[in-house]
Specification:
By secondary structure, this protein is an alpha+beta fold. It is built from 24 helices and 12 strands. Strand 1 and strand 2 form a beta hairpin. Helix 4 runs antiparallel to helix 5, helix 6 runs antiparallel to helix 7 and helix 21 crosses helix 23. It starts with 15 loop residues before the first strand and ends in a 10-residue tail after the last helix.
């Protein structure tokens, strides 16, 4: 703390105030002929100064009060009483004492201490008014006003960012202050900090008002960044990314990227990286987001930013797996093999698995179950891609990774990603890898034709990319279905399929309501689902093509079409509906029997199990005359209807047991609908 010492000299009282590192201010006061009260007051003053130097504040106060009692008009004694009270942290008393000094009394350092006392008693308005009065006075020879400016910026910093006095006062005094401090000076680092902070706070305030594209944000951010570079040891305490983060709140993503890019990458690297990542994600630029967060993780992570960065990194990498898995293929004709991008993104995701989860264990991160869930989900999606690309070995490895992560616990997400399901898919991929080339002589080949009706969506043409994404979704589902059925049947049922993109749209749809026959304890159906399905008669000549003799060598026809606005879903643009048809029914089972299943998929939220689910509704209908299947019986709501052998281990496990206990012994004749 700065302090000033005044010395008493023989014969006359000469007062000198030394301002330490702030400079020197000297004032000489001649008290006139010495009198006995004056000598006694001077003696008390000398004792007070001695105690002051020894930091014995109580003794110093006693002596200065005695001196002031003997010479009540001596303003120097009053000044020192105020300073001693300040050192004792009795700021209200110090403030009132210094406030009693006459206006003619030297303003520095008396008003400096007076302002400090006002600030320490939360009397910001009083401090600001006092500073303004001092700055209106001519500067002295020692140019002490620069120290009052130090107080000004700190006082303005106490005002709320929305207080108009903050910027109005700054604009009046900033240029004059900077002219007095033209170069980097450590004693003014704190002032540079406050001035930069005022500018940056104003930029944040304007950004939150929704004026993110306005010049005010740019000007204050640029000015604040320049002042921040002169804040010396306080530079690190100013985070300019706050402006860009305020722009994110207003969805001003491009503007946020523009501003945060002006901050050196070495400064606040975690906050900067997270902000860039969020902005790129907001613009739908996932690759740029992934690069931004990856770059920030190569630098030392700032305190408190680990969770945010890992969360962003997981979000971007899992998104890349999904995006690459759904990457558009050829716009027409047969679907080409899937891109390897999804598998590459999954490999990157695996590269930080140990780092992330070691940190999770050491910090008890509350979102660890979510992290395990979304990463396992992405690996399961990568496994689907590997399987449809024909690499069952890679699919088994990815399913195995997902299975191991889920085994560590995914909390509330267990209903979304079943460990038993992943185990079955892993074993199905392993079985497919080892047995696919050694088909048994008695293996039944079940043949499907899959068409994607993607000409229109709500009356608008569907883009080639959207068409291809639908086809990819269908291909992944059928590949998983084929591998699972082959495994569950122990190699006795091989599902073969072809997927084609059709340029036509569905001309008309019809609505329906599905309710299960079974009822709950209150007598109500377990579910009631509104659905929309194509009106097959509206297809006109296309229907004849579908059911032409050329297709009579198929056991089933599967179709997929974009969601419609009449469907009860907010995700229609991310969804599609698949239907299974046995169009002829004149195979070995005879009787002209047909089965049709219609169901909607949200492609971004369901894995390949959706196709298996719909196919099993087919099987339930085809075997209805021999077995009493209950649709959706694997759910918890149907617990009282569970077969004795089912233990609630998940939908896919239920299907596996149906194969093992019922379908494999009964044979697959009822499924064969093609002409021979």
């Amino acid at each position: 703390m700065r302090y000033w010492v005044r010395l008493a000299l023989a014969g006359a009282l000469v007062m000198v105030a030394a301002c330490g590192a702030q400079g020197t201010h000297a004032r000489v006061v001649q008290t006139g002929p010495a009198t006995d009260p004056a000598r006694l007051a001077g003696a008390e003053y000398s004792l007070s100064i001695k105690a002051y130097r020894d930091k014995n504040w109580p003794v110093a106060l006693v002596h200065i009060q005695r001196a002031l009692a003997l010479a009540p008009d001596n303003q120097d004694y009053r000044y020192w009483k105020g300073i001693i009270l300040y050192q004792q942290a009795d700021y209200p008393a110090a403030l009132s004492t210094l406030d009693a000094l006459p206006l003619s009394y030297a303003w520095y350092p008396a008003r400096w201490y007076q302002t400090e006392s006002a600030l320490r008693t939360a009397r910001t308005n009083e401090a600001l008014a006092l500073i303004e009065r001092v700055l209106a006075l001519p500067d002295d020879a020692a140019k002490n006003q620069r120290h009052i400016y130090d107080l000004l910026w700190r006082t303005l910093g106490r005002l709320a960012p929305g207080d108009p006095r903050r910027m109005q006062t700054t604009l009046r005094h900033e240029a004059n202050w900077l002219a007095r401090v033209p170069f980097q000076a450590p004693e003014h680092d704190a002032s540079m900090y406050w001035l930069a902070r005022i500018r940056l706070d104003e930029a944040v305030r304007l950004a939150r008002l929704g004026t993110g594209a306005g010049q005010g944000v740019d000007d204050n951010f640029t000015r604040g960044l320049a002042l921040r570079s002169r804040a010396g040891r306080y530079t690190k305490d100013l985070d300019p990314t706050l402006v860009a983060r305020a722009l994110l709140e207003q969805r001003q993503f491009a503007k946020a990227i523009d501003l945060v890019s002006k901050i050196p990458s070495s400064e606040h690297p975690s906050a900067r990286g997270w902000t860039l990542t969020a902005a790129w994600l907001g613009l739908g630029r996932t690759n740029e987001a992934a690069r931004a967060v990856e770059e920030s993780l190569t630098r030392p992570i700032q305190a408190g930013w680990q969770a945010a960065l890992y969360t962003s990194w997981i979000q971007t990498q899992t998104a890349l797996v999904r995006i690459n898995a759904e990457k558009p293929a050829a716009p027409a004709g047969e679907l080409d093999g899937l891109e390897a991008g999804a598998l590459q993104a999954a490999a990157v995701l695996a590269s930080r698995e140990r780092e992330i989860f070691d940190w999770c264990r050491n910090t008890s991160w509350e979102h660890a179950p979510w992290a395990r869930y979304v990463i396992a989900w992405a690996w399961a999606r990568a496994a689907e891609v590997a399987l449809v690309r024909g690499d069952a070995g890679a699919a088994a490895r990815w399913y195995g990774r997902a299975e191991g992560l889920v085994a560590q616990g995914i909390g509330q997400y267990e209903a979304n990603l079943n460990r038993t399901t992943l185990a079955h898919y892993r074993r199905a991929a392993e079985f497919w890898q080892t047995r696919r080339e050694r088909i048994k002589a008695d293996t039944v080949r079940y043949r499907m034709l899959a068409w994607v009706f993607a000409g229109q969506e709500d009356g608008r043409p569907v883009t080639p990319g959207r068409q291809a994404a639908l086809a990819r979704f269908l291909s992944r589902g059928l590949a998983q279905l084929s591998a699972f059925f082959f495994y569950a049947s122990n190699g006795r049922l091989l599902v073969e399929y072809e997927v084609f993109i059709r340029p036509e749209g569905i001309p008309a749809y019809r609505n329906g309501v599905w309710q299960p026959v079974e009822r709950d304890a209150t007598g109500k159906p377990f579910a009631s689902v509104n659905y929309v399905e194509p009106d097959m008669d509206s297809l006109g000549p296309l229907k004849n093509e579908l059911f032409s003799p050329a297709n009579r060598d198929r056991d089933a026809f599967v179709f997929l079409y974009p969601g419609t606005s009449s469907e009860p879903s907010s995700e229609k643009l991310a969804g599609a509906t698949a239907g299974f048809f046995h169009p002829f029914g004149n195979g070995p089972t005879g009787g002209g029997k047909r089965a049709r299943i219609n169901a909607r998929f949200a492609m971004a939220g369901v894995m390949a199990s959706g196709m298996i689910h719909e196919m099993f509704h087919h099987i339930e209908d085809l075997y209805r005359d021999r077995f009493s299947f209950v649709k959706h019986v694997y759910k918890q709501d149907y617990r009282h209807l569970w077969p004795a052998w089912y233990r609630g281990t998940g939908e896919i496990d239920y299907y596996y047991e149906i194969f093992r206990r019922i379908l494999n012994p009964a044979g697959f004749g009822p499924m064969l609908m093609r002409e021979r």
